[in-house]
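Action item from last meeting closed. Structure (611 res):
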């Protein structure tokens, strides 16, 4: 029987690996330190100070870079936003139109900065006069395009960073100290500059980063690209003379004086240890300063305490290693078991680590993730049920018993009157109507079939109503190849027939047309019937905005229109759907907006059943 190696046994268990690591980093360093502390204590303290300064400074720089990258990412995100691109190239004909667009854009920006408290404000300002902000402060009066800062930003080829200044350039504030980054807004369609993006960052966010870096051992300076001081941390006292000494050394520092590694320069002087790094994004310098007296002040005490505690630490190392290994591996083991349960399909799994540290947060995040997965699964199921319900309602409208009875009765009377040709036309249209309604279970059909479907419906209804209405269909041939949800136009035509005819309007005209915009197709159903009374029109429009699917109090018209509107939004999103406009006594217009799908040349084809 082969006996496994110790390394193989340890490698199979995280607990044993942690135990071995704890022992290695506790017992052996202590023994080594006890043997050579009298020789290398001074160098060790210096190296420790250097390493501590570098690590602390690197953490501070990383935090600062993350903060700056967050602002830069916000700018890039908004630069690539399709809606903002559209707003920035818009030309406003009225102040009302511009203010409405400003409010809409401001709401979009607010959603971007909600979870970034260090971002004081995000502003997008265009050459067309549009201005959008993510906070509640008011823009300064006057034309911002004439301001020096706006001209400076828009003249740049990239980002420009401003050190701490009082108040925002763009909005009216009190005395907030802010750091700003601005860049020109580029029109993705033309490549031209048509405005600017400006982000304000609270200076306190930087102060927090700098203050927590070296603690009480030293202090930090933050310099801009011209080596001017932006701010200074608290910590070990930094006299005016020492500060000037440090600034002079940094300004005159040459690569040959010290070693530059990983963008870090270490300058050893008699007065202080100076470590600085340069931000790749802003080219600002973050300088860590630890006075020499602070490094060597307690060297004798450290040596004595080290020798006394050497034995105690060695004895306690084994026990503490066992305890720590168990403390960290038990939660991981619970997480592993929970994940295995989820992998097997059990989404009712939950764990309680009873901890407030990162592992506890990880356990809470795991539980939250499982809840969201369950909720998403429920939402997907509910959406499928809702879509099927809408489709069934649409088909029910097609096979309405009254419609079937009246249509068949009309065909029978045509035959009795020997109008066989009319009966044949009506019966042919009747069968075409139902064949396209079924469409082999497909949800999407070519526009050509949808047009043929509504034309068949118009033929049947026109014969039933003894040609009390005329109709015309104008759909460009180049749109026929695109696809649409089936049964969109027939409910709108039905609504026009049932509610357009009246005593005052004994004969009406129904017009069906289509046109295309970039990425969209718009159907229009118009009639010159009696129209919709204002109070009913308002109720119907409110119901459409609420995206309800029940018929409510709007009657059959409300049912048909809302069912079509609900199906469109469920498949394509809230930006699509239908709108109703009517003037009582003159007529009604219904517009349906859907995405351009299923065509050659780049549009995506939509599957028959949504996911």
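Sequence:
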């Amino acid at each position: 029987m082969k006996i496994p190696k110790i390394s193989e046994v340890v490698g199979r268990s995280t607990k044993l690996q942690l135990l071995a690591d704890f022992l290695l980093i506790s017992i052996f360093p202590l023994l080594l330190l006890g043997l050579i502390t009298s020789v290398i204590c001074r160098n060790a303290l210096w190296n420790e100070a250097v390493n501590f300064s570098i690590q602390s400074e690197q953490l501070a720089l990383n935090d600062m870079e993350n903060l700056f990258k967050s602002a830069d990412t916000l700018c890039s995100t908004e630069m690539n936003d399709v809606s903002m691109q559209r707003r920035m190239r818009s030309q406003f004909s009225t102040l009302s139109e511009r203010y409405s667009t400003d409010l809409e854009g401001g709401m979009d920006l607010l959603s971007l900065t909600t979870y970034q408290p260090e971002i004081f404000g995000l502003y997008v300002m265009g050459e067309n006069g549009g201005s959008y902000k993510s906070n509640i402060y008011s823009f300064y009066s006057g034309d911002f395009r004439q301001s020096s800062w706006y001209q400076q930003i828009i003249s740049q080829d990239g980002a420009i960073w401003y050190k701490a200044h009082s108040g925002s350039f763009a909005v009216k504030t009190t005395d907030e100290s802010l750091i700003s980054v601005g860049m020109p807004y580029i029109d993705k369609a033309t490549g031209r500059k048509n405005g600017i993006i400006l982000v304000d960052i609270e200076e306190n966010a930087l102060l927090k980063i700098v203050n927590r870096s070296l603690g009480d051992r030293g202090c930090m300076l933050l310099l801009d690209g011209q080596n001017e001081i932006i701010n200074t941390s608290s910590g070990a006292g930094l006299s005016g003379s020492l500060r000037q000494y440090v600034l002079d050394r940094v300004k005159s520092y040459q690569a040959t004086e010290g070693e530059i590694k990983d963008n870090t320069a270490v300058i050893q002087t008699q007065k202080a240890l100076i470590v600085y790094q340069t931000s790749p994004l802003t080219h600002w310098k973050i300088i860590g300063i630890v006075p020499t007296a602070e490094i060597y002040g307690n060297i004798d005490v450290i040596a004595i305490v080290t020798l006394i505690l050497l034995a105690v630490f060695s004895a306690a190392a084994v026990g503490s290693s066992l305890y720590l290994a168990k403390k960290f591996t038990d939660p991981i083991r619970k997480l592993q078991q929970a994940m295995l349960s989820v992998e097997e399909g059990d989404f009712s799994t939950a764990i309680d680590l009873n901890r407030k540290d990162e592992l506890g947060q990880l356990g809470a995040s795991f539980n939250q993730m499982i809840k969201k997965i369950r909720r998403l699964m429920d939402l997907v199921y509910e959406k499928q049920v809702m879509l099927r319900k809408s489709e069934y309602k649409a088909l029910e409208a097609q096979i309405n018993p009254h419609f079937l009875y009246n249509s068949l009765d009309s065909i029978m009377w045509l035959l009795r009157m020997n109008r066989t040709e009319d009966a044949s036309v009506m019966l042919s249209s009747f069968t075409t109507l139902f064949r396209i309604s079924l469409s082999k279970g497909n949800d999407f059909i070519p526009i050509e079939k949808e047009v043929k479907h509504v034309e068949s419906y118009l033929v049947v209804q026109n014969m039933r109503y003894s040609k009390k209405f005329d109709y015309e269909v104008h759909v460009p041939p180049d749109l026929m190849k695109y696809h649409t949800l089936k049964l969109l136009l027939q409910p709108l035509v039905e609504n026009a027939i049932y509610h357009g005819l009246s005593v005052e309007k004994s004969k009406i005209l129904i017009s069906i047309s289509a046109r295309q915009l970039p990425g969209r197709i718009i159907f229009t159903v118009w009639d010159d019937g009696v129209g919709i009374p204002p109070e009913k029109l308002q109720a119907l429009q409110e119901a459409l905005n609420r995206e309800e699917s029940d018929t409510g109090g709007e009657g059959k018209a409300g049912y048909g229109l809302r069912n079509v509107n609900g199906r469109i939004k469920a498949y394509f999103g809230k930006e699509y759907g239908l709108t109703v406009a009517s003037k009582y006594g003159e007529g009604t217009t219904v517009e349906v907006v859907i995405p351009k799908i299923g065509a050659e040349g780049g549009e995506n084809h939509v599957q028959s059943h949504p996911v």
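Note appended to the action item: The longest strand covers residues 177-186.
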